[in-house]
Amino acid sequence: METFLQQVVSGLAAGGIYAAFALALVMTYLATNAVNFAQGEMAMFSTFVASALIESGMPYWAAFFVTLAIAFLGGVAIERAILRPLERAPVLALTIVTIGLLTIFNSMAGWIFGYTIRTFPSPFPPSPVRLGGIVVSRHSLGSLGVTLALLALLYVFFRYTHLGLAMRAAARYPVGSRLVGIRVGWMLALGWGLAAAIGAVAGILIAPVLFLEPNMMGGILIYAFAAATLGGFTSPVGAVIGGFLVGIIENLAGTYIRFIGADLKLTVALGIIVLVLIFKPSGLFGQPHAQQL
Amino acid sequence: MSDLLEIVGLEAFYGRTKALHGLDLAVREGGITALLGANGAGKSTLLRAVCGMVSLRGEIRFGGRSIAGKSTEVIARQGVAHVPEGRATFASMSVEENLRLGAHPRKDRSKLGDDFERVYAVFPALAQRRRQAAGTLSGGEQQMLAVARALLLPPRLLLLDEPSLGVAPRVVTEIFQVVKQINQQEGVSVLLVEQNARRAFELAESAYVLETGRVVASGPSAMLQQDDSIRRAYLGY
Q1: Nearest-by-CA chain A residue for B48
Q2: Is A108 in a helix, a strand, or coil?
Q3: Which of A166, A173, A175 sits opposite B104 (nearest CB)?
Q4: How close B90 comes to chain A (CA, Å)?
Q5: Type and span of the H or E element at B164
Q6: Residue B75 is part of which domain span?
Q7: pLDDT tens for each residue of B12-47
Q8: Cβ separation of B77 and A181 shorter than 8 Å?
Q9: What pLDDT was estimated at residue B181?
């Protein structure tokens, strides 16, 4: 039983990261109808920026928030400069562009920051916490706390502020939104900016565990895809729940299914994607697919 | 009074297909003008052109300033509220959220309470459903919501695209009364697309009759109504 709880708690900590990432994916998907394959690399690049800021002597939390601001502005700029000109292009073209962005960010990070693996500091003390029989690292608990705070903030923003409401309308009902005078293009760009900032939070929180290098996000992106697929790609709430579920399932499968162990955990994520697509393509909370005419 | 909306030599296109062929039209400031004609005559296209939703050639002036080629949101912000065919309400959002979004361009959004109450007084059916998702409303209620949302802009010109389509006649009467009221009390000009010419004449003091993207007749409602040849050929009664 203790092992079980232990794995669930570890799963929740990892799941928070997946949830944040999946949320970022779903937000850009809802805004532009294309999956942003560069989401992970953008987060990795942001994390390098945070690392550079911290190494230059900036306090951790200052660097954290400065990085979020940079990521936000970067996301807005990418949407305005690269995706907006393709507004009427087919989804496939947009998808290819995001794959292009992935390689660009990956190479740029290697070129500017190098390919050597770096450590990244955690703001939380290293000593683990004991809860009953369970041992959890303070970093895991701290990440979970930060992720939950972020998700709560986003919920309040989208649910209760006028700007959040207008952003939701612009993503889902572009025609009606334009008719009431909402600047849909800018709303979508803000959505990209927010998604980039969310990704940066996830990147910074996972970096102490994964270490920092240009390819660090490859695996995380697949977990995030699994989470978004499980939750339904059209549902932000679904993406978050999917993230936590994937984190828990991955840990439990690694513990209780002997041949999976620590090595084949990523396969669990891929398995989830395949199973969801076969049995419930719209995911747990997504809407059944409908073609936009 | 002068013309709030002036259209000169308007051509509109869907891809390469020309849908309007050099059309002239004016809506008097404070007036209600109807656009009549059969399906496919170009009535909706004309409204869409005014709102920058189709590619076009020609001149469109609103309040003396050219709006041809401007984006839909910029045109809306100048005071053109368009209630399109199919209504374009935000189906998954509540009635109240729809209304809040209708007031999006306004700077005084914090003081909207009174305006909401006025809207609810005009459309009591909406007041009872303010927390309900717009998509769950009946066709008539959705049409009321679309009109209410448009009124919060607040508009100088209201474009109404077939408000009677799929709506019970009693509700159409109610909506027409509201339109007449805001036209008289607040001086909002109206351009109304309607297939049912008889209903349109109840409201509009002048009308244009369109056929295949051209104006084939225009003038005061009273005159058009009395012209038997126009009535038989284009208005179908």
Answers
A1: A179
A2: helix
A3: A166
A4: 7
A5: none
A6: 3-235
A7: 999 889 999 999 999 999 999 999 988 888 999 999
A8: yes
A9: 93
Chain B environment of A166 (Cβ under 8 Å): 101, 104
Residue A182 to residue B104, Cβ atoms within 8 A: yes
Rounded to whole angstroms, how far apart are CA atoms B143 and B145? Answer: 5
A272, pLDDT greater than 80: yes
Is A181–B104 a contact, with Cβ atoms under 8 angstroms apart?
A: yes
- The answer to whether the Cβ–Cβ distance between A165 and B76 falls below 8 Å is no
CATH of the domain at B13: 3.40.50.300
CA dist A121 and A287 (Å) reads 40
Q: B3-14 and B17-28 as β-strands: parallel, antiparallel, unpaired?
A: antiparallel
β-strand B17-28 against A129-131: which pairing, if any? unpaired
pLDDT tens per residue across span B156-169: 999 999 998 888 88
Q: In a mutagenesis test of the B interface, which of A179, A287, A292 is the best target, namely the one with the most B β-carbons within 10 Å?
A: A179
pTM above 0.90, yes or no: no
Domain count, chain B: 1
A131: which strand partners? A134
Contacts of A236 in chain B (CB under 8 A): none
Residues recorded for chain B: 237
What CA–CA distance (Å, rounded) separates B162 from B173? 13
pLDDT at B236 over 80: no
Task: Verify whether the Cβ–Cβ distance B51 to A173 is below 8 Å.
Answer: no
